[in-house]
Write a structure and sequence with these properties.
The protein contains eight helices and no strands. Mean pLDDT is about 75; it is low at about 85-105. Helices cover about 70% and strands about 0% of the residues. The protein has two domains: about 15-85, Rna Polymerase Sigma Factor, Chain: A, CATH 1.10.1740; about 100-175, Arc Repressor Mutant, subunit A (Orthogonal Bundle). The protein is globular. The protein is an all-alpha fold. Helix 1 (about 15-35) packs across helix 2 (about 40-55) and helix 7 crosses helix 8.
């Protein structure tokens, strides 16, 4: 969909697909940090972009677009966490039912090792301080240090430092 009639002049997106692709990882990382479950974070991402699509014309450009996007994402994720009936639904491990049996038969050892490492990483991230976790999650979502600094309102040197110490803390979990 072409967005020219809905966009503030500050935004440089040709269509909604481009806006979605360029911001998906950021929204997912923000949601995951709050809900701590990949599947639920995916749902939050979809709901967030639905709101963005409906309310894009209301973006006034007074703040950075990512700040506006962050606020929508955190509001959706926080409202999910606050609902009492959702507290028992959260999963500790993502189901693997979507993976074809052929893939498991071809590379069962590799798959299981990657799955185990991903589970250790996810659990380890939840055990370290939010200060390091937010930087590491964005780094894992392929954000550059400069993008992380801009999104978290930090100096680039602070991002490098937190990334370094966060990786050291994660290594402690993987070495045990």
């Amino acid at each position: 969909m072409v967005l020219e009639d809905k966009l503030h002049p500050k935004l440089n997106y040709r269509n909604f697909d481009e806006l979605y692709r360029k911001n998906y990882n950021y929204v997912y990382a923000c949601a995951l940090r709050i809900v701590k479950d990949g599947i639920i974070a995916e749902d939050i991402v979809q709901e967030t972009f639905l709101i963005v699509y409906k309310k894009l014309s209301e973006f006034r450009g007074e703040s950075d677009f990512k700040t506006w996007l962050y606020r929508i994402t955190t509001n959706k994720a926080s409202s999910y966490v606050k609902k009492p009936y959702n507290k028992h639904e959260r999963l500790t491990e993502e189901p693997i039912s979507w993976i074809s049996e052929d893939y498991l038969l071809l590379q069962p050892i590799d798959f299981l090792e990657r799955k185990r490492n991903a589970l250790i990483l996810r659990k380890s991230l939840m055990k370290i301080s939010e200060v390091y976790r937010s930087v590491l999650e964005m780094h894992l979502a392929d954000y550059t240090n400069l993008e992380i600094a801009e999104n978290l309102n930090l100096e680039p040197v602070t991002v490098r430092s937190r990334l370094h110490y966060g990786k050291l803390k994660l290594q402690q979990f993987f070495s045990h």
